[in-house]
Amino acid sequence: MSKIKLIFFDMDGVLVDIIGYNENGKKVAISTWNTVFDQTGIYHEHERLKELFIKGNFPTYMEWTDEACRVLQKHGLTKDKFMEIINSRPLMKGAEDTLRELKKRGYKVAVITGSFKALAKRIKELLGLDYIIAHCDLIFNENGNLKQWQLIPCDFEGKVEYFNKQAKELNLNPSECAYIGDEVNDMPIFGKAGLSIVFNCQKEEVKKAAGIIIDKKDLREILQYFPNL
């Protein structure tokens, strides 16, 4: 195995703790999208959109989240409420110690997420990430109302594309990169990374896709697989 130099993390459920939700389906992952719909009082809309996605009414993840943003806009999501949710997201147990130690050992660290750019930026500041790639950037107007959104296809199969792109920009082969994830949307990338770890996951099909399984909900458990460079 090539020497790992760059470590990619999924964000929701890995660096950020997601509490109180359960998704059993093979097409849907638990994420901060759940929390945003829940804390704005329209979780029933999230459930409706999720069922449509599972049934194939949205051919792609991008079309699903585009409609989700439109629904959030329709229901009056404000910047203040959104940032209140973003800033209240708890870090995963051991995240600060783990990222500090990995950087001390010489690794570059990155996030690829199908979640919100605002949260990825906050986590970058808190944990000292080198790179962030996030799916959804919500843009609010001067009155604090949701005006528009920008989406990039960096979830499910799209994670592989952005994984490869970031590695190439750093003159690294995929075999020199690790990926830590926890959900169905991470499965396509597990087989591409030089080292793949599934962390704190309850889904057997996801566990089978990764090389290493960590059940304990403490991110420091991954450190044993990353010696000093």
Q: TL;DR?
A:
It contains nine helices and seven strands. It has helices at about 30-40, 45-55, 60-75, 80-85, 95-105, 115-125, 155-170, 185-190, 205-210, and strands at about 5-10, 110-115, 130-140, 145-150, 175-180, 195-200, 210-215.
Please count the beta strands (DSSP E, at least 2 residues each).
7
Strand order of the largest sheet: 4-3-2-1-5-6-7
Q: Assign the CATH architecture of the largest domain.
A: 3-Layer(aba) Sandwich
Radius of gyration: 17 Å
Helicity level, as a percent range? 25-40%
Taking the sheet with the most strands, its summary is: 7 strands, mixed
CATH C-level class of the largest domain is: Alpha Beta
Question: What structural class do the secondary elements suggest?
Answer: alpha/beta
CATH fold title of the largest domain: Rossmann fold
- Whole-Å distance between the termini? 14 Å
Q: How many separate domains? A: 2
Order of helix and strand elements from N to C terminus: EHHHHHEHEEHEHEHE
Strand content: 15-25%
**For this structure, what is the CATH homologous superfamily of the largest domain?**
HAD superfamily/HAD-like
* Uncertain residue segments: none
